[in-house]
Amino acid sequence: MTEGFDGQKRETLRRFAAVGAAAPFVGVASADDGAEDANETRKAIRGYVPTTPGAHFSKLRDDLRLGTGEAQYHLRKLEEEGAIESVKDADYRRFFPAGRFDETDKRALGYLRRETPRGMILALLRDPDATGADLASALDVSRPTISAAAADLEGAGLLDRTGGYALTEPERLLTLVVRYADSFDAQAVAFADDAASLVAYDP
């Protein structure tokens, strides 16, 4: 069982390491990175973070099949090298490639990584006139759940609840969803496939 897990872990690390090797912000490994496994892990994280921006620590650790201490060590080293950066988001610490996103992008990606806010954003991008009841029905959650998520989105500057629910940054959110759809879920992928129909052409 352990051997099978280690094989899967190595395969996962190699896949993301290949992305990391091509990433524009990849630097030279530190002098104390002598072990091949350490270099491969570091490269995998470099590949993972740009393709899954805003992922929190537990997701990154689990997706890359790393131990908690192992992940913490390499993330700290990469932050010290200036390859990645992190921000605290409520109970989560989220990771981003250094210098690529502004603060609004980071907040938006943080909420897109949460199931209910992401579902609300997708629903409102499809139908800007959707009501709270519409959103609750579409996401199969309670109205209080929608209200709580809406309050969080409003606090983040991504939603205006004056007279209903209106996204304040629809173009930005649409761009982020489409660009990183594969890193969210199947609904985001389906949305991205249909995104062209949601963009109005007004020369």
TrEMBL record:
Chain ranges of the HVO-0163 N-terminal HTH domain: 39-109
Residues forming the HTH marR-type domain are 121-162
| Annotated InterPro entries | ArsR-like_HTH (IPR011991), HTH_HVO_0163_N (IPR056504), HTH_MarR-typ (IPR000835), WH-like_DNA-bd_sf (IPR036388), WH_DNA-bd_sf (IPR036390)
What's the protein called, per UniProt? Answer: Predicted transcriptional regulator, containsd two HTH domains
Q: Which GO terms describe its molecular function?
A: DNA-binding transcription factor activity
Record SUPFAM superfamilies: Winged helix' DNA-binding domain
Signal sequence: where?
Answer: none
What Pfam families does the annotation carry?
HTH_HVO_0163_N, MarR_2
